[in-house]
Specification:
5 strands, 28% helix, two-stranded antiparallel sheet
Length: 68
């Protein structure tokens, strides 16, 4: 499962992946928001990622969220 993330936010437990296929889908989409995401991927403000860890907890810098 591929996700789109902002590059200005540090992320742990993820790997950056090639966005070629995601851009093809976004370019052919009729969704009004697809242009925003495709432009972000092209100009480097966003990247496509996949999660490495199999956990129900999400960590961010200085924060810890527990599964409730």
């Amino acid at each position: 499962m591929v996700r789109i993330a902002f590059t200005h936010t540090p992320m742990y437990g993820v790997t950056r992946v090639d966005n070629t296929n995601v851009l093809k889908v976004l370019d052919n989409s009729t969704d009004p928001h697809s242009k925003y995401y495709s432009e972000g991927l092209r100009n480097g403000t966003m990247v496509t990622i996949v999660e490495n860890e199999d956990q129900d907890r999400y960590f961010s810098v200085g924060e810890l969220y527990f599964k409730s």
